[in-house]
């Protein structure tokens, strides 16, 4: 029995240490890498604690404390996935899509963007082979802005029904100032590197000062390559005075659909709310995200 208890406690200490480190993303690049697996770690922890209670590996008091900790870890994740959303079509919509640099044909994606009828479109992995999509959509979205980002697998772009008043490029983002429903609005398409050991930490550190200098409200959508409950997301929300809107839903499926993560997001001004509608992959490894936005501040007036 002593050996059994030692094994249960050793695994529990290792697991809870990994969960604790997954909250260190503000100061340690690998913290956000662990945050990607936080929900899996916590769910595995639930199974481990129940097994320990049944088999005598833990006492009741220890099991209760560990269960409460795991519940506290899982609650924000559950909220991100199942929180309430506003009903209806909303005041405006943005269509977010990582196109996939190796996209064989843009026809299915073009048809889906047209069918969605969003006010704005944000695209990533835009390369010379699929850049023609913006020209094909020019009747519906006559105003667009493209920035190269070939350090990864293609550039980033925004498309708008409204004229572009000003535009900027940065490391992995394209920003276009347009006239929004409440005044000028910076529409930003963002593509982040994968987290550590890749360069996401340094990329965010580089672009945050630039995003902080945007002189109007920000509506940012993109492939963040990061889960909603990470420090990376919190850093970007703080820098742009935004929050992630809508429910977090699985947007990428890879390795035979075994890797399934919510990494495509929309960040909007803090008084706005969103309703997430998932769109087909249309040849990409990412689903499209159509976000119906409700401007709560305009409703109040």
Task: Give the arrangement of secondary structure elements.
Layout: H1 2-21, H2 29-36, H3 38-55, H4 60-82, E1 92-98, H5 107-116, E2 120-126, H6 132-136, E3 143-147, E4 155-160, E5 166-170, E6 173-180, E7 183-191, H7 200-212, E8 217-223, H8 231-240, E9 242-244, E10 252-254, E11 259-261, E12 264-269, E13 272-279, E14 288-295, H9 296-300
Parallel strand pairs: 1-2, 7-8
Antiparallel strand pairs: 1-14, 2-4, 3-4, 5-6, 6-7, 8-12, 9-12, 10-11, 13-14
Characterization of this structure:
By secondary structure, the protein is an alpha+beta fold. Helices cover 37% and strands 28% of the residues. Strands 3-4-2-1-14-13 form a six-stranded mixed β-sheet. Strand 7, helix 7 (200-212) and strand 8 (217-223) form a beta-alpha-beta unit. Helix 1 (2-21) runs antiparallel to helix 3, helix 3 (38-55) runs antiparallel to helix 4 and helix 7 packs parallel to helix 8 (231-240). It starts with a helix and ends with a helix.
Condensed summary:
This protein has 301 residues and is an alpha+beta fold. Helix content is 37%, strand content 28%. The strands form three sheets. Strands 3-4-2-1-14-13 form a six-stranded mixed β-sheet. A six-stranded mixed β-sheet has the order 5-6-7-8-12-9, with helices on one face. A two-stranded antiparallel ribbon has the order 10-11.
């Amino acid at each position: 029995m002593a050996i059994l208890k030692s094994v249960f406690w050793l695994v529990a200490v290792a697991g809870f240490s990994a969960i604790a480190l997954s909250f260190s993303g503000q100061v340690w690049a690998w913290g956000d890498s662990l945050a990607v697996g936080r929900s899996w770690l916590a769910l595995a922890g639930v199974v481990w604690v129940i097994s320990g209670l049944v088999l005598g590996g833990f006492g009741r008091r220890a099991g209760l404390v560990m269960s409460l900790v795991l519940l506290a870890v899982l609650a924000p994740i559950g909220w991100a996935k199942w929180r309430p959303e506003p009903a209806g079509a909303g005041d405006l919509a943005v269509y977010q899509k990582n196109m996939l640099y190796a996209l064989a044909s843009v026809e299915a994606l073009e048809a889906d963007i047209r069918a969605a009828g969003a006010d704005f479109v944000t695209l990533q992995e835009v390369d010379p082979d699929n850049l023609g999509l913006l020209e094909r959509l020019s009747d519906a979205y006559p105003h667009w802005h493209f920035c190269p980002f070939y350090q990864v697998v293609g550039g980033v772009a925004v498309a708008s029904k409204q004229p572009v008043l000003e535009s900027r490029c940065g490391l992995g983002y394209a920003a276009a100032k347009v006239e929004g429903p409440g005044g000028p609005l910076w529409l930003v398409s963002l593509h982040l590197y994968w987290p550590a050991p890749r360069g996401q930490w340094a990329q965010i550190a580089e672009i945050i000062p630039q995003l902080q200098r945007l002189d109007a409200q920000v509506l940012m959508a993109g492939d963040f390559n990061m889960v909603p409950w990470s420090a990376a997301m919190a850093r970007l929300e703080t820098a742009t005075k935004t929050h992630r809107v809508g429910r977090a839903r699985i947007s990428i499926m890879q390795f035979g659909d075994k890797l399934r993560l919510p990494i495509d997001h929309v960040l909007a001004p803090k008084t706005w709310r969103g309703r997430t509608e998932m769109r087909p992959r249309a040849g990409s490894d990412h689903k499209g995200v159509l976000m119906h936005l409700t401007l709560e501040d305009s409703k109040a007036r």
